[in-house]
Write a structure and sequence with these properties.
This protein is α/β, with parallel strands linked by helices. Helix content is 35%, strand content 13%. The strands form 2 sheets. A 7-stranded mixed beta sheet has the order 3-4-2-1-5-6-7, sandwiched between helices.
Length: 418
């Protein structure tokens, strides 16, 4: 009888704790990464295979064990080569700098560079049975990891090598879709696929779409090791997983939110507007010399964009074109990130800078010989810039994306895994 009463109270306590967890927004069961699901299966799909691994420091499990070390220790798995995307396998190469092929001192394995060319050569894939992909991206079209993924899939299709994606959460969640589709004319490493700027798919789902839509010359034999217990409504903080910087200026789990919100502005040149790179707040600011920070904050807050507030600040960057020079503007705060229109912030900020400070970012980009070629490439089109230059409002530009966003939501549904 006593034992039965004890069990009753134990069940009551467990239910109470579970209720608190749900109230706090924690997943009922821990999110398992693709690399953890693979390990729990005793690496069955890799046994007896010669394997290459495309990864960087973000390729870890929840215990911060690298997939490099895990695969090296796995029974009957031969890890024979590493492949490095932009920033390299250790994430220590600056954005845009060439990654060199080498021999990794830690493991003694060959490291093949996939930046800036992205696509493995036949020689790199020779003697491989499978190429495994374990990279955390940011859920943004301009992040080059997804370009590298798709072109590596194409190379594997041509070489008859299996491509295996160890799936990872989209840190922006799986519900957010923002921006126009990338136009064919503006395809590049920062807009390689016909997806919106924010596409709302995991890397495994995107790989399925790249293969299924015929976006690569030769489809590959694709295997996706799925996540467990991930839900589309989850942003990174909801997963309970540790964040390892995916690149030097994406240091925290909420950094992808800010990267989307100001990354386009950054492509106009850091002699134009500071977005916090070179200071302690990468992607979290919009500032320039001579701007009245209070007026800019007031102008941006008058838009009443949901889920975001703009606070006045000034700072002196530690390095870069504004090194030691005071810039003033706003710091971005997300009060409800799920509701905030991330991509739109770029355009409202450009509009507000012109109204408040008389700063025409496009004219200045031309004057400083930066131009706006990268801005157009990242947008996947020159239409947003041309519309802004012609006097259309940021609200008009954001509204113009609606058809592309709906079209993509419908087209991508069949590739969803969750």
């Amino acid at each position: 009888m006593l034992k039965a009463i004890q069990m009753k109270y134990l069940f009551y306590i467990l239910a109470l704790v579970s209720g608190f967890g749900s109230a706090l927004g924690l997943p009922a069961e821990p999110v398992q990464l693709g690399n953890e699901v693979l390990a729990n299966s005793s690496f069955k799909i890799l046994q007896g295979k010669r394997v290459g691994l495309l990864t960087n420091p973000s390729g870890v499990n929840r215990n911060l064990e690298t997939t490099i070390d895990v695969l090296r220790a796995a029974k009957d798995v031969q890890l024979v080569a590493l492949f490095g995307p932009e920033h390299g396998i250790y994430g220590d190469v600056s954005a845009g700098d060439k990654v060199h092929s080498s021999v990794d001192k830690h493991t003694g394995l060959a490291v093949h560079s996939l930046y800036p060319k992205h696509k493995p050569t036949p020689a790199m894939l020779k003697d491989l049975d499978a190429l495994v992909y374990d990279l955390q991206d940011t859920g943004c079209r301009s992040y080059t990891f997804i370009t590298t993924m798709g072109l590596a899939m194409e190379a594997c299709g041509e070489a008859g090598v299996e491509f295996i994606v160890l799936d990872r959460p989209n840190p922006l969640g799986g519900l957010r879709v923002e921006g126009n589709l990338a136009a064919e004319k503006f395809r590049s490493a920062v807009s390689q696929w016909e997806v919106p700027y924010v596409y709302g798919l995991t890397c495994g789902e995107l790989a399925r779409m790249i293969n299924g839509e015929g976006w690569i010359k030769m489809p590959c034999k694709l295997t996706v090791v799925p996540l467990k217990n991930w839900q589309r409504s989850m942003t990174w903080k909801d997963t309970g997983l540790p964040w390892v910087p995916t690149s030097p200026h994406v240091p925290h789990g909420d950094s992808p939110l800010f990267q989307v919100a100001t990354g386009m502005i950054g492509e106009l040149g850091d002699t134009n507007v500071s977005i916090g790179i070179g200071y302690t707040l990468p992607f979290e600011c919009v500032a320039a010399p001579g701007v009245d920070r209070h007026q800019l904050a007031a102008a941006l807050n008058r838009y009443q964009l949901p889920g975001v507030r703009f606070q006045p600040l000034s700072y002196k960057p530690f390095y870069g074109p504004f090194q030691g020079e005071e810039v003033a503007g706003v710091q971005i705060y997300f009060t409800d990130a799920a509701q905030a229109p991330l991509t739109a912030i770029n355009f409202y900020a450009i509009e507000a800078l012109r109204k408040v400070a008389g700063l025409d970012v496009f004219a200045k980009a031309v004057a400083t010989k930066r131009g706006f070629g990268m801005f157009d490439k990242v947008n996947g089109s020159d239409q947003p810039r041309q519309r802004l230059q012609a006097g259309q409002t940021a609200a008009d530009i954001v509204a113009s994306w609606k058809n592309d966003e709906e079209k993509f939501r419908d087209r991508s549904k069949k590739y969803r895994l969750y």
